[in-house]
Amino acid sequence: MGRRGSILLWAAIFTIGVAIQTATTYSIVQITIGRFIAGLGVGALSAIVPLYNGETAPKSIRGMMLVLYQLQIIVGIFLSYIIDLGTHAIANSASWRIPVGLQMLWGFILLSGVFFLPESPRHLLATHRYEQARIVIAELNSVPIDSDMVEAHVAELAEAIKAENEGGKATWTECFSTRNALWKRTGNGMMLQFIQQLNGQNFYYYYGDTFFQSAGTQLSPYVIQTILGAVSVVGTVPALILIETWGRRRSLLTGALWEAVCAIIAGLVGHFTLAPVGTPTTNLTQRNKRGGDTLITFAVLHVFGFSMFWGPTPWVYLGESFPLRVRAKCIALGSATNWLWNFLLSFFAPRIAARIGPLILLIFFGMLIFGYVYVYLAIPETKGLSLEEVDEMYRAGVQPWRSSAWKPSQKHVYATEREKEVHDHVVGMA
C-alpha cells in the first residue's frame, strides 16, 4: 500500500475505534472493544510514521524531523492532561466523553492531511515509479526536477534498492540474519526501545501522583500530570538542536548519566526521609518536607532529561538504521518492543512500588547504567549519514566508539563514472 496509503488506513481504523468508545455511556465492553481497535491504529502508526519520516526527510534534517515526531507525541500528551484537568469534575459522562471524543479530531486531521503528503521516494523507486520519485525528490529538496542533485539521489537510491532486492522477498527471520549485520541492527533498535521504557519516566507519568502525595504536596493528580506534561514539552524542544549538533550517541550517553543521577538521588532520599503513603500532611516533619521537595525536584529533572535525550533519540535511531529491504519490518519490531515493555512497566510497577516504595527508582538507576554501557559498546553514530551510508557503515564493521569519525566511501553507490561525477558536482555546489 505504500507509506502514505498505510497511514491513511490505520488513521481510519484509529478514528473508528474512538467513535465506538464515544458512542456509549455505560457499556464497559463497548469501550474496551473501541479501545482495542483504536490501539491497533496507534500501534501501527507508531511504526509507519517514523519509517515515513526517515525516508522522506533530507539527511541534514532527518534527525530533527524524527525528534519532531516525539515532540508531537509529548505535546499531545500535554494537551490531554489539560483537557482532563478541565473536564474531570463534570458530573456526567461528558467528563470522559470529551477527552476521548476529541481524539477523533486528530484522526480526521491525519486522514485529510495525508492527501497533501508525497509518497516515500524509496517506496516509489522500489515499485518502479521512477518519474514520480524524481518529482517527490525535487519537491522535498526544493530543486528543479532536472537538477543534478535529483539525478544523483535517484541513482543512489536505485543502486541501493537493486542491491537489497537481489535476495528475493524479505522475511521476518531475515531481520535477524547475519546479512549486512541485520541481527545487530535489529537488536540495537529493539534494545534501545526496551531501555527507553525502563528509564523510569513512565513510572512518574503513571504513578507519580502517589509518590508526590507521600511527599506532602497538596496538588491534585490532574495538576501533577499537567506539570509533568509541560516539563516534557519544554525538554523535547532542545532535542531538535542537540540531535544534529551532539549526535545520537552523545545524546544517549549524556541522558543515561543525567537520569541515573536523578533516579538514585530521588530513590534514596525518598526511602530514607518520606513518611509512608497515606500519612496526613499535618503530621509530616520538616525532614519529611525537605525529602519530599528533593524527590519532586529530581523527578522533574528526570522527566526533563528523558525528554531531551532518551525520549526522541531511540525513535530517530529506529527510523534511520535499516536497509529498505527490511526497514518496515525492523521498525515494526522496535515499535512492538516499545509497547510491550510499556505494558509490562504499567502492569508490574505499582505492585513493586507497593512493596519497596521509592527504592523502585533504583531499578531504573540500574537500567540506565546498563543503557550507558550498551550504547557505548553497541550503538554507532548515524548523524549526517544518508540511509544508504548507514547501511555501508554497518557492512564495514565500524566499531561504535569509533563511528563518529567514520566517513562513507560511497563507492558502492555509483554504477557508472558519470554518476560519481554528478555526485561530486552536487557536493561542490553544496
Q: What class would the helix/strand composition place it in?
A: mainly alpha
User: From N to C, what is the helix and strand string?
Assistant: HHHHHHHHHHHHHHHHHH
How large, in whole angstroms, is the Cα Rg?
Answer: 24 Å
Tell me, briefly, the overall form: globular
- Tally of alpha and pi helices: 18
Q: What's the mean pLDDT score?
A: 85
Largest sheet entry: none
Oligomeric composition of the shown chains: single chain
Kindly estimate the percentage of residues that lie in beta strands according to DSSP.
Answer: under 5%
Number of strands: 0
Share in helix = over 70%
* End-to-end CA span: 35 Å
Low-confidence stretches: 412-430
List the helices and strands and how they pair.
Blueprint lengths: L1 H21 L5 H29 L5 H26 L6 H8 L1 H11 L7 H6 L3 H12 L6 H17 L17 H16 L3 H14 L6 H25 L2 H26 L12 H23 L4 H7 L7 H30 L3 H19 L8 H9 L21 H13 L1
Could you characterize what this model shows?
The structure is a single chain. It contains 18 helices and no strands. 73% of the residues lie in helices and 0% in strands. α9 runs antiparallel to α14 and α10 runs antiparallel to α13. The protein is mainly α. The longest helix has 30 residues, at 327-356. Mean pLDDT is 85; it is low at 412-430. It starts with a helix and ends with a helix.
